[in-house]
Structure formats: structure tokens, C-alpha cells
Amino acid sequence: MIIGTPRHKATLDKRYDTIVIGSGMSGLTAAACLSKAGQKVLVLEQHYTAGGFTHTYARKGYEWDVGLHYIGEVHRPNSTLRRIFDYVSDSRLQWAQTDEVYDRIYLGDESFDLVTGVERFRAKMLSYFPEEQQALDRYLQLIREVNASTSMFFLHKALPNALAKILYRPFCRRYLEFAEQTTESVLLTLTKNAKFIAVLTGQWGDFGLPPKSSSFAMHAMVVKHYLAGASYPVGGSSSIARTIEPVIQKSGGQIVTGAAVEEIIVEQNKAVGVRLQGGQEVRAKTIISSVGVENTWRRLLDQATVEKHGYARQLANIEPSIAHLGVYIGLKASNKDLGLTSPNLWLYLDEHHDANLAAMKHPGQKFPVIFISFPSSKDPEWDARFPGKSTIEMVVPAPYEWFKQWEGSRWQKRGKDYTQFKQELLDSLLERLYRIHPQLVGKIHFAELSTPLSTEYFSHYKNGEIYGINHTPRRFQQKWLRPATPIANLYLTGQDIVTCGVGGALISGVLTTIRVLGLWRSRLLLTMLKPRRSR
């Protein structure tokens, strides 16, 4: 589904209240929240459709999402994420809860189900590891403790700078106690059972770092996010941008696609507008960049400005997340006919997550993890929209270095060697899919593989990274990763400011809005972020 107005059809005013660069989840959220505050907002997207990693694309009569495979907590109307989604979409966005088993972890040929509900999750884990009751109970307690500390840590990012300095310790200390430890180091204090640890950390692909490298706080947030169950947008992931666009338009704003920003215009240390490809300038009181800190400071700002504010040094303290392959499969048969259900599959070689990822140096080696999703089985409207068809998606880590020889080549015109290399990778991944679902042999009608070069082309992530900044303990120590910048009227939003994922980006959009409007004018947003007590 195409969302937004193409630049050649759009009429751009000379001035707006706010310009948002990028139409991913964070940019759309900030734009919708500011629109509901009465602002006229222009969202500029370089791609042909809005949505960022929540957009869908179509080929040969099929449709796939490109980044949203499931999301937690939104099936509960009282949850923070659901209340924000309802707010930015005027409650038009609907959700369908997936099956009780939302993730299935494979360690070799052995499988382990992650199930909805804390008590059911606990019972299921004990059925696999009955000797680990004490460790499991302590683990679940730690998950609760981490998540109890998150709201203060992230809300701190929306405070005015002077107040944020004063309140840093009381707001952030508890969260950082967890964030500054690795996932493995924490879990090894609970158990020495490597297989048990491997199952508990079997969702590390959701943020791109295995247990030895990842922040325990990031692990705990992902685990908690899904413990109550997972959901999928009714009508596919493009429903998110589709339902938010009218909210932006209601206050006179618009989403314009095919509108790549070349530069943020800064005058006397104040952001005053943007310059588009072709030279057109558009002015606004406020500029929000949702395209990542690296893109913002390295690509959209004059480098003298970057040096002046010390961002070259700051950027050296962070590192890009993992790059990936994406496989998009279309089948001329229904989910029911093929026996496809909604649980995601995580295929690991064995319990050694870190070692297997570190060993992935060359394309001929086995993939350390393969994520398989069945989007057509999650959307209750799929059969009405695409009768007699179904889809599968696969996501696999792949070093950007594998594709560096084609760096700088044009999308869809990278040459025969590149096409052949992609086909070899695709064949290898399909063979792995057939081992899990042998009934699919001979049933695939269409299959396409994307590489990190596609991510670089569409998102300008120079290393093809899928999750922005790596979620290491060091990442959470960076005080400068916040919405406000040293340049007046220039703000940041997105997964680099909070965490990766649709939920993290959603929250970042709200926090950036609070920082733009100020605490007093953001009372409604602050009320949404405050957890409600159940009666």
C-alpha cells in the first residue's frame, strides 16, 4: 500500500510549524502528536511510501511487511503502547493477537515454545528445565525489576537540559545498574545451564546482539514486552502509517514521499529549515530528525557544526548494529492448506549463540540464527485481501563486508555476480526452511532476497544496520542520546534515542514531542506514559 503524497504531486508551503525528516514509527508518532497539539507538520520521506520499517511492499500479487513481525502489549487496551497507538491513530488502528505460542526456539533439532502469560511461561520453562525453578523465579523477578525502572530512565530524556542534569542520578541510577551489565553476566549468576540460558535468550535477534555483548536491560525489556502475548496490525503493518496520516492532515500537515533531504539549514546555531534534493528549501520553527544520529550528524549537517559541538567524539562511542538478509516468499495456497500458523521460528545451530555468530565470517558457513515469520497467518484480513495465497519471511544476520565489493552500485543494477551470490544465499535459506516445513517443497511461487545494500539504499544506514546503534552496555551510558541537541530548534527521535523496535520508536516519538512542547503543554502525553493501576 502506497502512503503519502509523491513530491511531484505535492504543494509545499514555504513554512511549517515543524518539519519531520523520515516517516518511520518515531517520525510519524512525533508528527501526529504535534498535529494534535495544533501544529502544521510536514513529514518528508525519501522512499516512495511512508512507514519506514513498518511499510509493506508488493511483488507478483503478494504483500510483505519489511520490519514489523509482531509486537507485544498492544492487545491490552490499558497498556502504554496501546494508548499511544490509539492516540496517534484516533483509534483507527486495530490489532489481532497471535497464537498462545508466539516464538518457537530451535537449538539444533530440539524446540522450546515461548507462551503467553507469565505463569504459563514459567510452567512451560519448568517442563523443559524442572531443575531450574529457583533460577527461573529469580530471573522473572529481575525482569520485573528492570522494567519497573525503565519509565524514569527514558522520561529523563524529555526533561529540559538543566533539570536533566540535576535529576540524572535519581531518575537513571536503578536502570543503569542493569543496563551496564551484559545479559550473560547476569544470567550466569542464576544458573550455569548453557541450554537454559540459550532458550531464555532465544529472542536476541529482536535487538541484534547475543548474550555476551548485549545489555541485560535490553534483554529484559524485550522479554517483558512479549510475556503477555504478541499481536499484529489488522490489514498488515502498513495500516500503521495509513491510520496515522489523516491525523497529520487534520491540522493542515502532510506526508510527502520521494522527498530526500540533503541538508538541515542552520543559521546562527539555530535550525530553520531543510534543503531537499534539487535545491528547494522549506522553513519551519522546529526540525525533527528521525533518521538516526549517524545520518543526522554525518550526512545532514555541516561538518563544521558537528565538530563545534563535539559530535565527532560522541559518535566514536557508539557502533552500528547488525546487518541482515531478508527473504520474502509467496505461495499459491492458503495458510490453512499449507498448515502455516502464527508462531515465529528461531532456528539456532545449538546453544552457543555468541560463538556461532562470531564464527560467521564467510558466506559458505552455516547461519547462526534464522528467523522465520508467517505474516499472512497473523492478519485476520489476509484471506479476504489475498485469497488462496500465503507469505513467509525470513531474517538472517549477514555481515555488510560480504557485499562491500558492490558498494556504490545502483539498486537492481548491481550485476550478474551479485545476482548469482544472492541466489546462492536464497537457495541455502530455502533448504533450511524445507527442513522445518517439508510440505512447502514445490509450493513456492515467488522468492526474493534483500541484502544490507538494500537497507543502505532505502534507509541510508551506511553499514546496512537494521537496529541503529548496538544495544551494548556502553550505549546506555551515552547521556547525549536524547531528543534535544545543542542546535536550537533541532531535535532527534527514533530507535537511537530510546531502543530499537516499533515500541521503542513509538516511545521516542512521544518523548521528542514532550521535549518540543515542554512539560506543561504535554500533560496529555505524560498521562499516557504513566502506568495505570489495575483495579
Question: Secondary structure elements and their pairing?
Answer:
Layout: E1 5-6, E2 15-21, H1 25-36, E3 41-45, E4 56-59, E5 62-65, E6 71-72, H2 80-89, E7 95-97, E8 101-107, E9 110-115, H3 118-128, H4 133-155, H5 161-179, H6 183-187, H7 194-200, H8 216-227, E10 230-233, H9 238-250, E11 254-257, E12 261-267, E13 270-276, E14 281-289, H10 293-299, H11 303-308, H12 311-315, E15 324-331, H13 335-338, E16 344-348, H14 353-358, E17 369-373, H15 375-378, H16 382-385, E18 390-397, H17 416-436, E19 444-450, H18 452-459, E20 490-492, H19 501-517, H20 523-529
Parallel strand pairs: 1-11, 2-3, 2-14, 3-11, 8-16, 14-20
Antiparallel strand pairs: 4-5, 6-10, 7-10, 8-9, 12-13, 13-14, 15-18, 15-19, 16-17, 17-18
- What would CATH call the class of the largest domain? Alpha Beta
User: What is the residue-averaged pLDDT?
Assistant: 94
Anisotropy-based shape: globular
Looking at the structure, the CATH topology of the largest domain is FAD/NAD(P)-binding domain
Number of DSSP-assigned strands: 20
Strand count, sense and barrel status of the largest sheet are:
8 strands, mixed
State the helicity in percent bands: 25-40%
Kindly provide the radius of gyration, computed on alpha-carbon positions and rounded to a whole number of angstroms: 22 Å
Proportion of β residues?
A: 15-25%
CATH architecture of the largest domain: 3-Layer(bba) Sandwich
The total of helices stands at 20
Query: Uncertain regions: pLDDT < 50 for 5+ in a row?
Result: none
Tally of structural domains: 3
Give the full name of the CATH homologous superfamily of the largest domain.
FAD/NAD(P)-binding domain
Look at the helices and sheets and give the structural class. alpha/beta
Distance between the termini: 41 Å
